[in-house]
Amino acid sequence: MIIGTAGHIDHGKTALVRALTGVDTDRLKEEKARGITIELGFAYQAIAADDPDGPRLGFVDMPGHERFIHTMLAGATGIAMALLVVAADDGVMPQTREHLQILQLLDIRHGAIALTKTDKVPAERVAEVTNEIRALLAGTFLADAPLFPCSAITGAGIGELRQFLHGAARDWHQRHAAEPDAQRNFRLAVDRSFSIEGRGTIVTGTVHAGTLAVGDTIRMLPSTRNERPLTARVRGMHAFNRKVEQCGSGERVALNLAGVERSEIHRGDWIVADSLNHRSDRLSVSLSLLPDAKPLKHWSSVHVHAGSAHTLARIALLEGEQLAPGAQMLAELALELPLHLCHGDRIVLRDASARQTLGGCVVLDVFPPLRGKRSAERLALLRAQQDASDANALQALLATETRGVSLSQFAANRNLLSGALPALLAEIVAVQVSTGAGVYACLPAHWQAMRQKIVDEIARFHEREPDNAGVERERLRRKSFPTLPAEAFAAVLQSLIADAAVVAAQGRFVALPTHKVEFTPAERAIWDTVLPKLMDERFQPPRVRPLAQALGIDEPEMRRLMGKSAKLGHTYRVAHDHYFLAIAVKELATHVAALCDEQGLAKAAPFRDRIDTGRKLAIQILEFFDTIGYTRRLKEHHVIRQAQMWS
Predict the structure, then answer these.
(1) In this structure, are strands 309-317 and 346-350 parallel, antiparallel, or unpaired?
(2) Given this model, what pLDDT does residue 178 score?
(3) Residue 11: which of 80, 74, 97 has the closest Cα?
(4) 50/521 Cα distance (integer angstroms)
(5) Above 80 in pLDDT, residue 345?
(6) How far apart are CA 455 and CA 467, in angstroms?
(7) Which residue, of 321, 345, 504, 532, is most buried by count of CB atoms within 10 Å of its CB?
(8) How confident is the model at residue 67 (pLDDT cuts 50, 70, 90)?
C-alpha cells in the first residue's frame, strides 16, 4: 500500500517518515541545505519485521511549500491512503487546508492524522490544535480518521502510528489479493525518469490499473517519437523496492525499459498497455468548484493537474455561463497539450496565476464530438456516463444514444480490456455489428428507427430529384445521420439492402426498389459511342467539348448526356466538364490508398507519376476525392478519411 504525506511546509513530514521507516527521503543537495522537501521522496518498509519478503508499505513524502504544489499533486496521484501532518506549534496552516482540499478532489478515501512536534508544546496546546484539526476535518473523508499525537525527536506516539499504518496496509494487501484488477489495461503515471549506467532508462510511478509483466511491450503517452507512437519493452521491474516479475494496481513500481531514451519520457507521461493509443486535447468532465473559490466563468483559463501531468486549459461550461462556488456542472476542457486520460480519472484545477486551487473534475468522456456539445442529447449522454458501474453506464448509454454505441470506443474510454465486453452485454438485448473499427451495438428499437429514417430520406430524395438513379451513400449519410461513424452507417444501410427494403444502383447509389431511371434508346445509342472514348484514356478522358467534336454531337446535347450519365452512376464529374468512368475513379482511389499506405499521405507529384497524367489534373482528382469525403486535405497533402467508401 502507498501512503502519501500531506501538510504545510516545516510541519515535520520528512522527519516523521524517517522515524517510521529509518529512511531519509530528502536526497537532493538543495533539500539538505535548505531543510525543506523540494522533490518527491520515497521510503519502503516490510509490514511484518519477521517477514521481510512479505507485503510492504510505501511512503511518498510530498513537499509542503506552496511553490511546489505541482510536485505534491504528482505524488498524490494513485496513493491509497493519506497521512495529514500538522505541527502542534503551528497548528492548521494554509497548505494544510489546500492539501486537504486536493486530497478530497482526488477522491482519496482513507487516511490518518499525525499531530507532530508535541515535544515542543504543553499538553494544553496539543488539545487546542486537536480541536482545531477536528473542526477543519468535519465533513471530509478524514472526519472520523484516527489522530496520533507524536514526536519524531522523542519517539512518542510513533509506535502507535506505525502499528495503525501496518494494520491498514495488511487489510489493503488482503483486499488487493482477493480482487485483482483483471478487467482493465495497465496504466502507470510517470513521476520520475532517469538512467542508470549499464541498465538504461528507468521510470517510476504508481500503477493505476491492470497488470504488467517483464517482457511485455508498453506504450508511452502522450509522448511520441517523430510524431509516431513511442513503445518499449519491459526489461525488468521493482515493486515496493524489490525485484519482481509482475506488478499490479496500487503498487509503487520502477520499470527498466529497453528501446527508449530517458530524454524521451517525462513526468506527466503514462506507461500504458500497448493496446491503448488515445490522446485527448478535449475532455468532457463533471466539474466541481470549491466553496471558497471565486465564481468560474465560461472559457476561463486554468491550470490542469491530471495524474502527474500539468498543462493549461480553457473551460467550456456546458450548462450555463458561470459556475457558483460549491456548485457542480458538466463542462469541457480544451487542453493546451494533449493528455492520455480515461473515464474516472481525477483532475485538479488551479487558477490562471497558479496560486489557488479552484476545484476538480471527474473525466467522463475522452472522445467528445466536435459539435453539439451543449445539445440536450449530448448532455443526456454525459449524465449516462457519470455512473461508475461499467454495466450500468453501458445500459444507460444504449438507452440514451439513438444512433448506437461504439463498444471499442466505450472500452477505450473506460480502459476496459476487450474481453470484458461480453459479460457487460450478456444481459442486454442489442443489435451488434462488427466493423473495421470494432463492434457497434444498438438497441433494437433504435436500430429500426434508423432504418426507417434512411428509407424516408431516400424517398424524399426521389421526390426532389426524380431523374437521378439514386442517392450517393455518403450524401445519404450526411443528410440522415451526419454524426454516425461511416462504418456503422454502412452496416445499417447494408441491412436494408439485405432485406430488399432498398437496392444498390450502379454500385455507388441506393434507391427504393420501385424507383427506375435509365437512358432512353436514343441516349443509349449515343452513350455506346461515348463509352469507348472514356475507356481508351480512363485516367485522362476527353472533356465534353472535344468529346462532342470528335463524335459530331451537339455540345449542349453532349453536356446533358454526360450529366445524366453521372446521375445514373456511370461516371463522376471530377472537374468542370470532365467526366471519369466510375470504374476508373475507383481504380484512382486504390492508387491514392497505396500512396497513403507507403508514405502516410498522398502528394500531387507522386500521384501524378503513378497515374501518368499532368500535375494540374492530378491535383483536380485529389481535390475531387476531398470533396466527396474519401480523403481529407492537410495543407498541401491528402490523407484517407473513409477507406470503406469503395468497398
Answers:
(1) unpaired
(2) 59
(3) 97
(4) 98
(5) yes
(6) 18
(7) 345
(8) confident
Cα→Cα distances 610→91, 294, 455, 585, 603, Å:
77, 62, 40, 14, 11
Our separate counts of H helices and E strands in the chain read: 19, 33
- What pLDDT does residue 642 have? 80
Model pTM? Answer: 0.82
For residue 376, which amino acid is it? A
Output the nine-digit C-alpha cell for 585. Answer: 475513379
Q: How many CB atoms lie within 10 A of CB 146?
A: 13
Alpha-carbon dihedral angle through residues 572, 576, 577, 579, given to the nearest 10 degrees: -20
SS (H, E, C) 424-487: HHCCCCCEEEEECCEEEEECHHHHHHHHHHHHHHHHHHHHHCCCCCCEEHHHHHHHHCCCCCHH
Residue 172's nearest CA partner among 278, 56, 257, 61 is 56
What lies within 8 Å, CB to CB, of 16 at 6+ separation is 5, 83, 85, 114, 116, 150, 152
Q: Which residue has the cell 501524378?
A: 608
Beta 296-297 vs 309-317: how paired, if at all? Answer: unpaired
3-class SS shares of the chain: helix, strand, coil, % to 5? 35, 30, 35
- CA-to-CA distance for 563 and 544, rounded, in angstroms? 10
Residue 504: per-residue pLDDT: 83
What would the mean pLDDT of 321-343 be, rounded to a whole number?
Answer: 96
CB 366 within 8 A of CB 342: yes
**Residue 296 reports pLDDT greater than 70:** yes
448 touches 456 (CB < 8 A): no
The tens digit of pLDDT for each residue in 109-152 reads 999 999 999 999 999 999 999 999 999 999 999 999 999 999 99
